[in-house]
Predict the structure.
Amino acid sequence: MKVFLIAALLAAALAPADLYRSLPSVLKGWKAAGDDEVFDRKTLYRHINGGAELYLTFDFREVLVRRFEHPEKPGMLLEVFDMGNSADAFGVFSCERDGEELGIGQGSEYAGGLLRFWKDRYFVAVTSLGDEELTKHAVAALGTIVADLISSTGALPPLIDRLPREYLQEASIRYFHAAQSLNNIYYLASENILQLDNATECVCARYGSGEGAALLLVVRYPDDRRAAEAAETFLAQYVPEARETGYARMEDGTWTAVAARSRLVSIVFESSSAEEANRLVSGVNNDE
Amino acid sequence: MSNPPYFGMVTRRDFLKGSACIAAGLALGLPERGLSEEKLARVVLVRRKNVLNEQSKVNPDIIHTMLDEAVMALTDRDEPAKAWQSLFKADDTVGIKSNFWRFMPTPKELEAAMRAGVESAGVPAGKIAVDDWGVLENPVFKEATALINVRPLRTHYWAGIGGCLKNYIMFSPNPPDYHPDSCADLALLWRLPAVSGKTRLNVLSVIKPLFHGRGPHHYDQRYLWYYGGLIAGVDPVAVDAVGLGILQAKRAEFFPEKESWETQPKHVMMADTRHKLGTSDLNKIKLITLGWEEGRLI
């Protein structure tokens, strides 16, 4: 029974080619202009320039880009990214959250003329190419149409469920794989001292409120050995004084704590107290 | 690519200790007393209050004048043609490496002004090309004896800022090779055969720079501001350092509490201290300012 259910779910997921064929060409006076462009892993940098690197750290497959023009108003740019799976679609979405939730897709945010949302394996962006006041309604409408075309939904990364819930700032949750992504969120080191790569999963989030909110980072490695090695490298190169107790005070007066259990390494940065830091790393669900 | 021995790894704790300032890419330096003018890198900043019209379109005549003024001040010539002739010869083949990022491309009017300047030096139109992504296949660029490097200045998700140094990434057959460690070694692009020794002029458009962005999409209208300027120089590191100084000043002015850089633009300092491509120390740069003074920030 379970096999049939899974097969049915897979069949319901919208294939990229089907989604692209269904995308609107006309919307409230805006019309698709020029040919659509499609960029894959090799050519993405031509479209996003330096930002391509982030997508390549996820399971990005390709992006369809469609430009809309209006005779009297600024244009819009629609980008539909096939991220390969819903966890990575959420991951890309989570790395840039800074706006108003518009209730589109499975998570969305709008600010500065840019609408971003994720749904199932897709990450979608709609950008105003001029004064956003003239296009905001159209940007939201286009996003809603595209979200509705994606009939299926996808699961959040399971690693998120391991985060302790008390005092968690939900909007601060980030999911990623690579060291550079971590550095963009929270600069740690010029070298990859946590040994992150495409096989590692990372989630981080802030706890508490206002100034001094602690940051919890949880990394899931492919096996126990890699987790142990990474924890050792981190301790040796970043906080050797935490080796005995698992926590230490930093130069700015905040506390860092480290814990490694089976395939997980949990680290707290910028905690206001040793007690809080230890509570957070202890609160991570390590059951494998 | 190995680091010089005195650099090594930098961690967040080094910043907390205050020992990582040099490696952070911020242009620091003690005042060099008695540094003669000829040892200073020359950079020109020219601004106009009205380079954009009411429809936010670039005025082609004004930007042409600005560019000529910048080149004259840079080369110490009193006529535009003489200034351009001091940079380019009639038998040169010139590639103008522009930037086509769809959200903030190099203004076409600025590209046109550059073409006109190079033609005034006697270079035939057929031996001048403007390109970005296609430079490795462009026949003019393949034969180029001289390059102009031009783009709008902005913050950049992966490198901290997108300036002169970053603009040459398309000369690499594999751009991701230069992305590790926040693009710290972008200066190595300038050793590529297609580039090495050819750049005669670097220009950053700071007409409406982007001083903050979020994530890889990065373009955010809330963080554009009208500055109305061009920064020009022969030393790309010095030009980037001046641009970086302007962005830093704007960020300090705009954010009530200091907003940390999404990515530290340390490649500018590394281009100086690690790769010796040019100077990033504002104390070693002679900044010539022309035109509109209000809101100059540096």
User: Anything to note?
Assistant: The domain at 2-149 of chain A is CATH 3.40.1000 (Protein Transport Mog1p; Chain A). The two ends of chain A are 25 Å apart (CA to CA).
